[in-house]
Design goal:
By secondary structure, this protein is α+β, with helices and mostly antiparallel strands. It has helices spanning about 1-5, 25-45, 45-60, 170-185, 200-210, 240-245, 255-275, 285-295, 305-315, 345-355; strands at about 90-95, 120-130, 135-140, 145-150, 150, 160, 160-165, 195, 210-215, 220, 225-230, 230-235, 295-300, 325-330, 330-335, 335-345, 360, 370-375, 405, 415, 420. The strands form 7 sheets. Strands 13-8-1-2-3-14-20 form a 7-stranded mixed β-sheet, sandwiched between helices. A 4-stranded mixed β-sheet has the order 12-9-21-18. Strands 4-7 form a two-stranded antiparallel ribbon. It starts with a helix and ends in a 5-residue tail after the last strand.
């Protein structure tokens, strides 16, 4: 329960975990939710935008997935408008299901793949520190062999515990709640917020932010996902953005670990755009992002409240880019199967310990397998030096009070401030 206190939550009686239960929403609660969304929109926008935004975002939200946790705790109601109090642990699971994805895989080499819930081929954990001065995004390899706890299923049955299973099977075993339980068991954290996103959802989110510009150190071609990009800067949205973050054969060494670092290039660029290009100050674009998230993801119960999304975003707004760190969960080859990976015990313990203790982290290792540092542009001659400004994302008002935990070199990744480029898989 100590972690719950750090996460800024109050214990509250919540019904036991039941998947697929859709209780009728009381009209008064519905009205309060709409009013809450109205306040959130008015904080960042104008009344003319708020009218449409309130009703459309509220109508996109459904009752979310109720979560239970390894330690037996349950989640409290969402916070009021304003930055969430205390720290945040939020899990994002990307499903590879082709079911209901608009037929976009009809004629592709990967069409014979997952149906139903699918596999959580992409799983990321966002940890925001209690004082909102640092954030860590941890990517978990799909091929990671880990112990799994018992997981409730939507049909009322329970998937039994396993001493060693492939990480990306958690979603198909027991839904989004099972992915949360597996990561909680692996890291020691309690995770009150979770979201599941499909291929269509990734495209919607990329479109909502107006595309993401990434740097390519070399051409990237991957026929498995329909990707063919020239070297240089590329602005990706829609299907191209989806193909880029999905690509495995086309980047690095063709492994899932290379795909993770390619995704980190994309995410760091996205973070810089959100914090420096005024996206969060633009009410129309902010509304588009909120609507895309509400309509294209399966959300846990309290994350499905739009006020919670606003509160978490506000907790991030003053964190400096150098204090937002993307890391791959440290792994090495599994002795029992060279096509699988297992945690590096000492490095994983260092990362887990820093997260549980709410300490900032510092990387000492290299960027990932599919990334290279972007060469610094030469300074322009006689260009005036701009005066520093205290804008969102500058870190001017959010400096970590603790010294960072320096992770061992086996932990790869980058900060959001690092300019990196993706490199193609040269066979």
């Amino acid at each position: 329960m100590a972690q719950r206190a750090r996460a800024g939550h109050r214990a509250a009686p919540v019904a036991p975990f039941r998947h697929g239960v859709q209780p009728t929403r009381h009209p008064v609660l519905r009205l309060l939710q709409i009013v809450g969304v109205a306040v959130a929109v008015l904080v960042v926008g104008t009344a003319s935008v708020a009218g449409a935004a309130v009703w459309e975002v509220a109508s996109s939200v459904t009752t979310g997935v109720k979560l239970t946790h390894v330690d037996g705790s349950v989640d409290a109601p969402p916070p009021d408008i304003g930055a969430v109090e205390g720290g945040v642990n939020l899990l994002l699971a990307g499903t590879d299901t082709r079911q209901g994805q608009g037929g976009q895989f009809q004629n592709r080499a990967d069409q014979a793949a997952s149906s139903g819930a699918g596999n959580n081929d992409v799983t990321m954990l966002l940890h925001i520190s209690e004082d909102h001065s640092s954030a860590t995004v941890v990517s978990f390899p799909r091929d990671l062999m880990v112990p799994m706890p018992p997981c409730p299923r939507e049909n009322g049955t329970t998937a039994g515990a396993s001493s060693k299973a492939m990480f990306n099977t958690a979603l198909s075993r027991g839904g989004l709640g099972c992915v949360v339980l597996t990561v909680e068991k692996l890291t020691g954290l309690t995770i009150p917020y979770a979201a599941e996103i499909s291929f269509d959802g990734v495209m919607s989110m990329a479109d909502a932010v107006g595309g993401v510009t990434v740097c390519l150190a070399s051409p990237i071609k991957d026929p498995y996902v329909g990707l063919d990009l020239a070297a240089g800067e590329q602005t990706l949205s829609g299907a191209a953005a989806l193909a880029f973050v999905r690509s495995r054969h086309g980047v690095g060494d063709g492994s899932d670990l290379g795909r993770i670092s390619n995704q980190q290039v994309f995410l760091s660029s996205l973070t810089r755009k959100l914090t420096t290009d005024g996206v969060l100050e633009n009410p129309i674009r902010l509304y588009s992002i909120a609507k895309a998230a509400a309509s294209s993801m399966t959300l846990s119960e309290y994350l499905s409240n739009p006020t919670t999304m606003v509160s978490i975003a506000l907790a991030l707004k003053d964190i400096g880019l150098q204090n937002i760190v993307f890391v791959q969960y440290p792994t090495s080859s599994d002795p029992a199967n060279p096509n699988r990976v297992v945690p590096i015990a000492s490095a994983a313990a260092a990362l887990n310990g820093a997260l549980v203790a709410d300490q900032p982290i510092q990387l000492s290792g290299k960027v990932g397998r599919a990334a290279v540092e972007q060469p610094a542009a030469p300074p322009a001659e006689a260009a005036p030096t701009p005066a520093p400004t205290a804008s969102a994302g500058s870190g001017a008002s959010a400096t970590p009070s603790q010294a960072p935990v320096v992770l061992p070199p086996s932990v790869t990744g980058q900060t959001a401030a690092q300019q990196t480029c993706s490199k193609g898989n040269v066979r």
